[in-house]
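pls ignore typos typing on phone
magnesium ion + seq
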Amino acid sequence: MSEAVTRTVTSPPGLLASLDPLLREWLPRQRWFAGKDRPVTGFALVAATELLPPTTKLGLYHLLVRAHQPLLPGHGGQEQPGECYQLLIGVREALPPRLAPALIGHVSEGPLAGRTVYEALHDTRPAELLLEALRSRARIGGLRFERDPGQEIRPGLVPRLMTVEQSNSSVVYGDTFILKLLRRIVPGINPDLELPLALAREGCPRVPPPTAWLVADPDPADPGEPHVLGVLQPFVQGATDGWELALRELAKGEDFVAEARALGRATAEVHTALARALPTVTLGHSGLRAMVAGMTERLAAAVRAVPALRPYATGLGSAYTALDGLAAEGQTWTAQRVHGDLHLGQCLRSPARGSSHAFGSGGEWSLIDFEGEPARPLAERRMPQPVVRDVAAMLRSFDYAARSADPPQPDWAEHCRAAYCSGYAEAAGTDPRTDPVMLRAYETDKAVYEVLYEARHRPQWLPVPLAAVRRLAGPDPTGPDLT
Ligand SMILES: Nc1ncnc2c1ncn2[C@@H]1O[C@H](COP(=O)(O)OP(=O)(O)O)[C@@H](O)[C@H]1O
Ligand SMILES: [Mg+2]
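k done
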């Protein structure tokens, strides 16, 4: 592909109709598919771009498709517009054995009749093509490949698809870059690009700075907001994520206090840089009301769904009324952009004495994945919030790690939680424990979410958040014990 390629391409008519029966089977089996509780009843094409014509040995389509899923009985029963997913579809005569796990199926009719289609991110050439397009800032159809002019991408980096469980799909290029392709696509600025770009502008060293990104421009006939589709960032070589590291230390019977303190400092550095980079607001009683109402509603829904929560409903609710009470008395809080889905798995620790000068080579923590909770609407995810939200989420994560050990190690978690807050205070100048009511409200909201999630998806994990629920609802709860 040459420099600054611009190609206008259309996809053949009938493409989606011919893929429909195959995608109905394949899509719900993907880890990142969000609607596993309901069948897919059809698809609508949002955008299709031919990246390689199917007449060659290898064809390649970039698709944005909306999956229709009827609501469950009791929820109105009508069809909702459905989620929009990003797909990269490869087309071959037949698949070589190495690509067997990527098979979507054999097309029986339409423009690709007789061909085999597959998940193209598993394949070298399509992955190379994406990197090449980012490097050369290509425009292909409605796809716009952008690159930070200050960062170079060396040609010839070898791609490999990451095999970890994730909610999106990532390709690593020669241990130098990682491209995350978002799977659930929404119009508008995605915080997974917005926040790392803002942090890079601030020179914050805790977050890999976006090197390049991929955007779908709206159809000129139907103007709207662009869709962020993917972000390329420097790959932190030899990194271990915080969850893995924590479990390793737990298994060895080691504490995690120094790491937790360093993580607290890293979180505070990111918060301080975000507060400098993007607007902050003051939250008073009226601003807080919507937040408290949301927490209260989520609690009520969880109590309805999970009977084990019932005995604690009043105690948990008191966390929210206490917060509302403080606001009614005139207390205010500063709200700013935050990570929004912080946990140990979103933190990467690079090896200590790295010999390279690559990003994050000094044994430091980096924070990744600023997408927020993908199930929440984008506007909500981009709203300024008290920093304590991220702190509370991380405190829950220490608890999760400690209670997944055999036997559970609640003291280990308490030491980490205290160290994390101390580290945070060292770098931010404010200790999150000085705001115990807000901290308890956010921890409660998180624990309630966890109970609902575990009850639905992993019942054997339910005791973990229920232990937190008992503590947070306690007979005379005065806030989390973080001494
Ligand atoms: N810059 C990076 N360097 C090294 N590994 C990374 C980097 N970014 C992500 N990863 C790895 O990829 C995984 C998934 O990335 P993440 O951004 O959390 O995606 P998802 O939104 O799918 O959760 C991480 O848990 C981590 O193991
Ligand atoms: Mg993640």
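The radius of gyration is 24 Å. DSSP finds twelve helices and 18 strands in the chain. more later
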